[in-house]
Amino acid sequence: MNSGSEAAPAVFRLPRTSYLLVLFVAFGTVPLAFTAANFHFDGTGASQGAPAVYGWQLVLLTLPLLALVYIARTATFVDATGIRVRALFGSRQMPWTAIRGLSTDKRTVYAVLADGAVRLPCVHVNTLAALARASGGHLPEIADPRPKFAPSRAQRRR
Fold first, then answer.
1. What's the CA gap between 137 and 78, in Å, rounded?
2. Kind of pairing, strands 101-105 and 116-124?
3. Is 127 helix (H, G, I), strand (E, B) or coil?
4. What CA–CA distance (Å, rounded) separates 133 from 2?
5. Opening angle at CA 23, ends 21 and 26, nearest 5
6. What confidence tens digit (pLDDT) does each residue in 26-81 have?
7. How many Å apart are CA 117 and CA 83, to the nearest integer?
């Protein structure tokens, strides 16, 4: 094992473009939050829209806030001392001595412990090389994945 001094810690997070989801959820919930549940259009054209109502529907505005907090908090931190998983409510620190290995299921990566497995959020199979580099020698070196490009149109033409 290498000494952990030369390994730079790594942080695995959701991409910043995930915050667009918060914007879309907000656009979808604001009309629902301020419209009466029993609104109906009378067909005379006298009312031009639904009246603004403040009621239980305002609870729907917590959905974009929950999505915002989830995106901001969910992360996996890897350094020479261990792995720290941070979720929406709480976090868990796992030293390298407690980790028996890593397990994968399609794209998802799990840290295998004596009492079970812990999912590593935002860590995927294609980021295992960065996780191994940040471990400070506690994991074997893994080659970076080679990008797989789509065939060009010129090659497909006949």
1. 12
2. unpaired
3. helix
4. 11
5. 110
6. 999 888 877 766 656 666 655 555 566 667 778 888 999 999 999 999 999 999 89
7. 13
